[in-house]
Design brief:
heterodimer; A: 117 residues; mainly beta; 7-stranded mixed sheet; 4-stranded antiparallel sheet; 55% strand; B: 113 residues
Chain lengths: 117, 113
């Protein structure tokens, strides 16, 4: 069974940092590109970042470029999102999602990040 | 960036009746390889999104055949032949032809009348 489990969210002050993790199981992690997608409270879905299966290519939405860093450890079946210089408008549920032809054939349960003083 | 525009944004439907959601893109979603990367997602209340359709009309495994996708170029449609109670939620289209960024529609909320 394919599973994606996010962790690392929580409350952080503006300007602070958090690192999200996404641990996967049930498939060969190293064969798939992966994504982070977020959803602000009561809002729609917004793509955040993509990492190729071998970590060779990293892509970001303009809203997070220079502040967020996506990475992965294929030996640990884990993807990360390092979030620095957090702002109030980064408040959202963050989902990790697998890419199969396109993003999102499987999703995690989501993890809430709240940026507030 | 490609802008995805959905309509309607609110969709009250009677159980057993059909439903249809339109999604229009600001540019053609035909890729240079000939494929069209238009996807549909369902997000039930309190749940993670679930991909229903990829590449315009291909249903994911386990998706009921009352869901169908169609369209080409810039105009796409998700149809539900007979709405059931479990179909309540928000539906999003998303393009993955011209990235970055991948872009979603605003979401269309289906409710039972």
């Amino acid at each position: 069974e394919v599973q994606l489990v996010e962790s690392g969210g929580g409350l952080v002050q503006p300007g602070g940092s958090l690192r999200l993790s996404c641990v996967v199981s049930g498939f060969t992690f190293s064969s798939y590109h992966m994504h982070w997608v977020r959803q602000a409270p009561g809002q729609g879905l917004a793509w955040v970042s993509r990492i190729e299966n071998d970590g060779s290519s990293l892509t970001y939405a303009d809203s997070v470029k220079g502040r967020f860093t996506i990475s992965r450890d294929n030996a640990k079946n884990t993807m990360y999102l390092q979030m620095n210089s957090l702002r109030a408008d980064d408040t959202a549920v963050y989902y990790c999602a697998r890419d199969n032809i396109s993003p999102g054939d499987f999703w995690g349960q989501g993890i809430l990040v709240t940026v507030s003083s | 960036d490609i802008v995805m525009t959905q309509s309607p944004l609110s969709l009250p439907v009677t159980l057993g009746q059909p439903a249809s959601i339109s999604c229009r893109s600001s540019q053609s979603l035909v890729h240079s390889n000939g494929n069209t990367y238009l996807n549909w997602f369902q997000q039930r209340p309190g749940q993670s999104p679930r991909r229903l359709i990829y590449n315009v009309f291909n249903r994911e495994s386990g998706v009921p055949d009352r869901f169908s996708g169609s369209g080409s170029g810039t105009d796409f449609t998700l149809k539900i032949s007979r709405v059931e109670a479990e179909d309540v939620g928000v539906y999003y289209c998303m393009q993955s032809t011209h990235w970055p960024p991948y872009t979603f529609g605003q979401g269309s909320k289906l409710e039972i009348k």
